[in-house]
Amino acid sequence: MNYCSSCAAPLHLGIPEGDHLPRHICDACGTIHYQNPRVITGCLPVFEDKVLLCKRAIEPRKGYWTLPAGFMENDESTTEGAIRETMEEANAHVIISHLYTLTSIVHVNQVQMIYLAQMEKPEFAKSSESLEVRLFEESEIPWDQLAFPTIKNALNYYFNDRKTGEFPLREIILKSN
Amino acid sequence: MNYCSSCAAPLHLGIPEGDHLPRHICDACGTIHYQNPRVITGCLPVFEDKVLLCKRAIEPRKGYWTLPAGFMENDESTTEGAIRETMEEANAHVIISHLYTLTSIVHVNQVQMIYLAQMEKPEFAKSSESLEVRLFEESEIPWDQLAFPTIKNALNYYFNDRKTGEFPLREIILKSN
Question: What CATH number corresponds to the domain at position A8?
């Protein structure tokens, strides 16, 4: 961040009065440009005893398997974003159950929310974001070809929790890969 | 957002290839400037049968009572942010229990997370952000002087849930004030 997005003047890094962290400040127009973590919202879609995974068509981790998820947009809720991402990436309609994993991915300034969700029908299709979409039984999960540690965590919790039938919210803090 | 924060060239609003929403795009250097919701993280601090509230020293809603909460920063987890905000606003140390309310405040592009938290001692003090900090019994809560609807929601849920002793995660979507 070099220039003010309001007035194009050069920015400097300084601690504003009453603050405790350095921010990008514009001396010309007075705007303080804050930078904050972004939210990633998505689903763990379940149909009968299977879960839906997408093979990524875009970097990072192109060709690896993931749960449908992406950056939360302005003007939507976390659940609306999770439903939207599942439609965009997997052409699948889901009914949200509840928030299942909440991961602070500290080293990349992201908060990832994965909702447990149900598919009423086994209807899905690949998309511009997914090379392939399919349902996996537990024994078929490609554990060594999962895109991100957060996806592996969510699937591990899911198959373990399925033994008891209780799926409590799991909070995870990741500080490195 | 008028100018590119990387190179200071004027931005235009357009839909990037493969995207579906308008973004601020820099034709000069190619940067796409995304705007996403921000996370507010905080606590509902409990000591014995009382909860801790802060009277806001800053706008918006200066002079109204709130739970300690604020924007999540880069390089921290949601729980670390909740603990930090409680120390900054109320000089109180808390032990996080679990995520209690998760509110998508859609019309202002915020996601608010309030953690249920315990105070081991009744130690707190006002700060540069709080004109006054005090513990309230249920009968003392200033319901008509609460700063935000999300605060009223969290306190309502808390005092209701206290009757059963179970405090499940509450998910709320707000689309207007």
Answer: 2.20.70.10
Query: Which parts of B92-157 are beta strand (E)?
Result: 95-105, 110-118, 130-136
Q: Are residues A16 and A85 in the same domain?
A: no
Q: How many domains does chain B have?
A: 2
Other Cβ atoms less than 10 A from the Cβ of A64: the count is 17
* Maximum pairwise Cα distance, chain B: 61
pTM metric for this prediction: 0.96
Please check whether residue B49 touches A, CB under 8 A: no
Judgement on whether residues B105 and B22 belong to the same structural domain of the protein: no
Task: Quote the pLDDT of residue B18.
Answer: 83
Average pLDDT over residues A68-89: 98
For residue A15, what are the domain limits? 1-35
Collapsing DSSP to helix, strand or coil, B82 comes out as helix
If one counts every other C-beta atom within 10 angstroms of the C-beta of residue B112, the result is 24
Rounded to 5°, angle at Cα B99 from A48 and B74: 105
Which residues have a Cβ under 8 Å from the Cβ of A139 and sit 6 or more positions away? none
Query: Of the candidates A36, A88, A98, which has its C-beta nearest B71's C-beta?
Result: A36
A8, A95: one domain:
no
Provide, as residue numbers in chain B, all residues whose Cβ is less than 8 Å from the Cβ of A8: 2-3, 8
Residues B34-93: tens digit of each pLDDT: 999 999 999 999 999 999 999 999 999 999 999 999 999 999 999 999 999 999 999 999
* Residue at A168: amino acid letter: P
For A130-154, what is each residue's pLDDT tens digit?
999 999 999 999 999 999 999 999 9
Structure tokens at B36: 């996403």
Q: What is the ipTM of this complex?
A: 0.95
